[in-house]
Amino acid sequence: PHGVAPAQDRSMIERELRAHLCASLQEMPSFVEAALAQLPSEMLTRVPDCDRSPLLEHAWHLRDCDEDLYAMRIRRAVAEDEPFLEPMDISHWVEQRSYMSRPVGDALAQFREGRTRLVAQVSEFSQEQLLRLAKRGDGCFSTVVALIGELVAHDQDHRHRISAILASYAARGEA
After folding, report:
1. 88-126 pLDDT per residue, tens
2. Using an 8 Å Cβ cutoff, are 165 and 51 in contact?
């Protein structure tokens, strides 16, 4: 049909999209490890001037959002017929899950492990699985690929925020 790529081209586009998404997802644990693994505890737990969250909170937040929010939603959308994705209030996680008293190394290791599992699954998703739908709390629908895109955008937000915090520490001669 006019205006639609031939099936062979669509297959290539699907493979490229999946590869791009997987590469984007896979790089975040390395970024976070490189940024945080060697920092002293004081720098990890300090509330920075340029952000409302200490770096340790970012580490645990990324781990928990991966496992308990994004990956869960992606897996449900692939496994269930149009699952309802209830809105989640994660504002209580910092205190409830004791982010500020937990070791950064555990957050980094668990984040990498969970993300590696998710990337392995995403790399195997078929075109049909990438296009499966889930119903959101606002009544709209999202595809699996859109849910993955939300996770990539979440990563980018935290990458920028972590980088800004580290830059502010470096500007003061601390990092």
Report:
1. 999 999 999 999 999 999 999 999 999 999 999 999 999
2. yes
